[in-house]
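Suppose you are handed a protein chain with no further information: no name, no annotation, nothing but its sequence. What can you learn? This example shows the usual starting point.
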Amino acid sequence: MKILVIGATGRTGKHVLTQGAGRGHEITAFARRPELLTDRSRLADVRQGDAHDLQAVRAAVQGQDAVLAAVGGSGIASTLITAMREAGVRRVVMTSSRSVPATRPRLAVTLAWLFFRAAYVDLARAEGMLQVSGLDWTVARATMLNDKPPAGRVHIDFEANATGGAMQLSRADYAMALLDAVEDPALIGKALGICGPK
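A reasonable first move is to predict its three-dimensional structure. Written in structure tokens, the prediction is:
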């Protein structure tokens, strides 16, 4: 599969590049600062640009089978929706936060919204834009991310509040789940919550 990775130099994006190439996908990295990519040997292409720049995204989307946005937001969603519709590319997976729909645990969710309200409101807007876009979308809502070694498994559910798993999730495991989502047509039109394994 030819996959365009938005936010390729981020802490999650780098894992997506490595794991995606390891799975045999043709990975194109899209980043504002591609010079931060130290190993390009397994990448199909590297594109420089801002994900809010429609012209840059239009050029990068051409010929792709899917887009994996390892960074979320309404501005990025808007640009991707326009560019993907024009190019006839339908499959998109975008990251979000488990805290966007959550109501429990009440104290933790309240504190998270207190400190990150603007970001969560924007992520909620991005999710809504994707849901009415007509694209083959999946939203991947992560719990608290860390840089610990991967466990090789995650807990996934489709509820507002987690039904199990751990509140901590390694970025490597999140990248694994994002790639799994891109590959799985059964997850089209779904918003999944991703937690670390117990």
